[in-house]
Amino acid sequence: TTTLVDPLQNAKVNQAKLKKDLQNLTTITNNGTCTKCGIDLANQELDNALDGTSKAVVLVTDGLANWLPGSTYNLPSSVAQPPALIDALIEYAKNNTPFYTIGLGTDVDPNFLQSMATQTKAKYYFTPTPDQLSNIFPSIYNDINQGIGLVSGTVYDDKNKRIKSVEVETK
Fold first, then answer.
1. What digits encode the pLDDT tens for the residues 20-68?
2. Cut 0.85: pTM above it
3. How many Å apart are CA 147 and CA 11, to the nearest integer?
4. What is the Cα–Cα distance from 113 to 116, expressed in whole angstroms?
5. Among 154, 166, 152, which Cα is nearest to 10's?
6. Cβ 61 vs Cβ 81: under 8 Å
7. What angle do CA 60, 38, 2 make, to 5 degrees?
């Protein structure tokens, strides 16, 4: 599953609402994780974001990058990771957009996620279970906006289907 956060706009954070929104997310499995697809969708969302707003991507993945657009079977991570990283680096070079990465569970490649975060001047987080996400997201938010604002974004599944829009207020 891939989660992205796009425009960050001025407002305030509600921990209870954040926790509830995170608990309502579901895991979708289809035997493949197209990290490049999530990054491409994030970049499209950012292209449509309001000018003058802070922009960042929060990529949450519960699987190894092992799928590319047009694939009919799982690929080795060594094949699927480079195009994903390149797309993140292009967006960073174009707009200085940091890519915060979160590895969720044991089937992730921390080196790949750390590399993406570091090369885009962001941070990598790991959590074995979703329980810690409610602590990680405010940390990212505070890093981006110094604690004031509204985070809005879109949640997609591995098949690029829009699941829901997410809005989280922070104090």
1. 665 555 444 456 888 998 899 888 888 877 777 778 888 999 889 998 9
2. no
3. 9
4. 5
5. 152
6. no
7. 30
And the tokens for 37? 């697809």
Q: Which residue type does 64 have?
A: L
Angle (nearest 5°) at CA 25 between 114 and 48:
70
Q: At what angle do helices 77-95 and 35-47 cross, to 10 degrees?
A: 20
On whether the CB atoms of residues 82 and 90 are closer than 8 A, the answer is no
Q: How far apart are CA 141 and CA 149, in angstroms?
A: 8
Q: Say how far residue 86 (Cα) sits from the centre of its chain.
A: 16
Q: Which amino acid is at 154?
A: T
Amino acid at 80: A
Helix-then-strand count for the chain, H and E: 5, 7
Q: For residue 37, what are the CA distances in angstroms to 27, 88, 116?
A: 17, 11, 15
One-letter amino acid at 167 equals E
Calpha distance 155→2 (Å, rounded): 7
Q: Which of 130, 6, 12, 108 is nearest to 63 (CA)?
A: 108
Q: Which of 91, 111, 82 is nearest to 41 (CA)?
A: 91
